[in-house]
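WARN no homologs supplied; continuing
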Amino acid sequence: MKVFSYLQLTLLYTFLVPAVRCVMEPLIRKVCLLTFLVVFDATSSVADLSLIVPPDPVIASAGDDIILPCHLSPQSSAVDMDIRWFKEGEFTNPLYLYKSRMGEEGKGYKGRVSLFTQELERGNISLLLKNIKVSDGGRYKCQASHMDWIQEPAVLLQVTKQGSVPRISMRKHHRVFIQLSCSSENWYPEPHMLWTDRSGKEITSAETERPKQKEEGVLYSITSNTRIGMDQLEGVTCVVMSKDRGTKMESASLQMTEEFYLSSLPDRVYIAAFVIPVFLALVCITASVLFVMHQKRDIQEKLKPIKEVKAELEDKRKELTKKDQLLGITGTIPDTVWTLMVCHHAVDVTLDPDTAHPKLTVSDDNKSVKFGDLRRERGTEKRFEEKQCVLGMEGYDTGTHYWEVDLGNKSQWSVGVAQDPENRNNIPMIPENGYWSIRLDNGVLKTVEKSSNFLPIELKPEKLGVLVDYKEGKIVFFNVKKRCHIHSFLGTFSKKLYPFFGPLIDCKEELKISPVPQAQK
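OK structure emitted
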């Protein structure tokens, strides 16, 4: 109201002469009132907004990618707002700062945080936090401000980490019991440990130490001890779990016979029972040395097949261990992250027949290609005359794009991305020349480079996903069925990037571009 009064008085008594004042005064009042209503409406519309975050904690495992949800209600554009994500108590060191339509990653979070810029228009200011660490746990503030309006609700992030498989060791033998110890490491938060017998009931006599943290560390280790009597030897198990019992790991059950238990007791009776047979055995050995030496060679020949079987079993064990390690490293991409990547970056790719090698046949809908008979049609400047290749119709020089290729059980294929090539012949198809691709050749999965990287054949995809992030200089390949990462290229792009397919030497089966659902824009 002060602005309204001041504007009115200024116009009335400064710029107008007294003779005209009586005529213009009603018009000036209307203009001032209209100005005040416009300013008041803009201020009140912002004041009606609220930031909505989930009331329950966001729970994630270490190493996962998660989303910290936050959006405007009612739905309104946040493009012109200032947005700051920061950990409670660390306002000056934000994770991500969005101001004047420009985003900036915080110190220590480079490459790990981002907003969904395409969602800002719909009021979605959620934060994507990648590769979660245990130290990332805590309360985060989602702050948005515009003019005199500001809100900063908090989101609680709880991070968990599953530790090692519990290991049981034998600490002490006694006449009537055996003392066992169980330990496990690298848990978060504090774990809980217990012992169970063969029927699955808890052994209440166990003594469990308080979980310990390594110096200047956040991960916990835990140890528990128990005494087991003769009648409880078989099937004893050590169990470690998170306090909410959402994560649980068990040790292998002990297989201990009564004979083993008795043989370990340092008792005089059993010592005597051992010494007498040994003495008699020494007498017999003296008389039978010559016979044993004579039979030695025959025995070794009989044991040879057993040694070969043991070596084969050891090779199988190492192979299974390698596969388990591989599955642990690649991991499965969380559904939320996968859906955001596929739906929000999917593009409709079609093949450009004008670029196809004369021996490649492109379908009428430009969605599939196969190796066929030599075509005699006249070539174009865009055509690959020597390399059995074909490019996509549309190229990309900005943004992030994703598409999928149906490979089925083909034994030979090469798929990737090509930078708009000036010379399409007589050059190696490697990253230095603007080609980034992986290929399968008779059971060998590898990258196409000067020094190729041989990739685990377990990652061979039936359907291949390709993600191009032009700004970040990333080209990433995924196994769509297993939802896991295969390989990534990093580079700097200066021209348009086109989907790239080939060579398909002697492969009569079609290589198809698979449709991907796209998010509504």
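The helical segments are 2-15, 18-47, 258-263, 268-330, 335-345.
OK
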